[in-house]
Amino acid sequence: MTEDNEMIDLLKELVSRLKQLESTVYDSSNILKASGIVTIDSPRPVQTEGNNTVPDADMISKMSWDDINSLVSNLGGN
């Protein structure tokens, strides 16, 4: 029973620290966010004209790292 209580206390502590970290990151006066190093908006995929096929696992396994990097950049709209 003691181990269960210790585990619950540990989980409560982790949750409170995560909440504190989240509030710190989303705070508008955060210097990392203000400088643009940390963003809260992720890139959205953009579908372009032309070859819109999404590669399957077999196709990806045969790609080089440069090809995968290019694919991910294109999916991110860059």
Number of domains: 2
Distance from N terminus to C terminus (CA atoms, Å) equals 54 Å
Number of strands: 0
Helix content: 55-70%
Q: Globular, elongated, flat, extended or rod-shaped: what is the shape?
A: flat
In the predicted model, the low-confidence regions spanning at least 5 consecutive residues are: none
User: In terms of structural class, how would the helical and strand content be classed?
Assistant: mainly alpha
Beta-strand portion reads under 5%
Give the ordered list of helices and strands.
HHHH
Average pLDDT, to the nearest integer? 79
Radius of gyration: 21 Å
Largest sheet: none
Total of DSSP H or I helical runs spanning 4+ residues = 4
What does this molecule look like?
This protein is mainly alpha-helical. The chain folds into 2 domains: 1-41, no CATH class; 45-78, no CATH class. The protein has 4 helices and no strands. The longest helix is centred in the first third of the chain and has 25 residues, at 2-26. The N and C termini lie far apart (54 Å). The mean pLDDT is 79.
Task: Explain the layout of strands and helices.
Elements: H1 2-26, H2 31-35, H3 57-61, H4 65-75
Q: Could you write a compact summary of the structure shown?
A:
This protein has helices at 2-26, 31-35, 57-61, 65-75. With 78 residues, it is mainly alpha-helical.
